[in-house]
Amino acid sequence: MLDILTFITWNPEPEIFSIGSFGIRYYSLCWLLAFVVAYFLMLKVFKREGKSQDLLDQLTIYIFVGTLIGARLGHCFFYDWAYYREHFIEIFIPFQQINGEWHMTGFTGLASHGGAIGIITALWLFSRKFKTDFTWLADRLVLVVPVSGAFIRLGNFFNSEIIGNPSDLPWAVIFSQHDTIPRHPAQLYEALAYLLIFGVLWMLYQKNQNPKPGKLFGLFLILLFGARFVIEYVKIDQVAFEAGMLFNMGQLLSVPFILIGIFLLFRKPKPAVQRKK
Predict the structure, then answer these.
(1) 212: helix, coil or strand?
(2) CB–CB of 107/70 below 8 Å?
């Protein structure tokens, strides 16, 4: 029998403080930190390349809205459609009806793959609105997305959600809100992986400020969603319908992003067209 004293016991309250029905959660704070840190890193990139801070401010609004909408819709449609098709209004409001009464819960259901789709959509809309090259934007934005992902996974850790399978490793964590079984801290695995990916991409950018268009974006897709695909093997199923599946929903949704990344990374640049004089 495993000695429970050798493992980390984790049982924090999800709220930092609350006033009546309103509360500030660690998860919300991590989301805020994700955007603040990403903003200041992107500001360094924009200043280095002679782009205005006003342009970055506009881009930040697009990305924030795109991330929130995409992540929310991704969760509702990919993971919990059986519930939300009967409670459609709850997709769009931070309240949930529990025992006939409405409670403020925040947008507790957010899916990273949906967030990725929302970000790409926001980038496309922004590039059309502000006449900015989409690939240039994508290559720069992915420099900071892994840092944001790391903060969000830290928020999942505080919420004791997205937990891992049982483990007897010395760093296994007992998530007391679930059970007394030591488990992989899958959220921290992802956070560390994302920080490493940030380090790789940032280093490549510092060495070559003008990489082949789409290279950083493609490498990001391969590394981040490749890491996600592998780490899914140590997670418990997020929803009941994943039981018995060869690949869970997180893995299936990662595959298209990885394939797009491979295409972007290895595609040959189009030859320059010479105009006749």
Answers:
(1) coil
(2) no
* Tens digits of residue pLDDT in 85-118: 777 776 776 666 666 665 566 666 678 888 899 9
- The three-class DSSP label of residue 271 is coil
How many angstroms separate the CA atoms of 159 and 177, rounded?
Answer: 9
- Kindly list the distances between the CA atom of residue 277 and the CA atoms of 45, 57, 273, in Å, as whole numbers in the listed order: 38, 42, 13
Query: Residues 166, 183: contact at Cβ < 8 Å?
Result: yes
Alpha helix ranges (H) inside 13-89: 26-48, 53-74, 81-84
pTM: 0.84
Rounded Cα gap, residues 170 and 165, in angstroms? 14
Q: Are 213 and 137 spatial neighbours (Cβ–Cβ below 8 Å)? A: no
How many Cβ atoms are within 10 Å of 186's Cβ, its own excluded?
Answer: 23
| Amino acid at residue number 199 | G
CA-to-CA dists, residue 71 to 65, 77, 178, 184, angstroms: 10, 10, 24, 24
Tens of pLDDT, residue by residue over 141-180, are 999 999 999 999 999 999 898 899 999 999 999 999 888 9
CA diameter of the chain? 82
Q: Tell me how far apart the alpha carbons of residues 225 and 206 are, in angstroms, rounded to a whole number.
A: 23
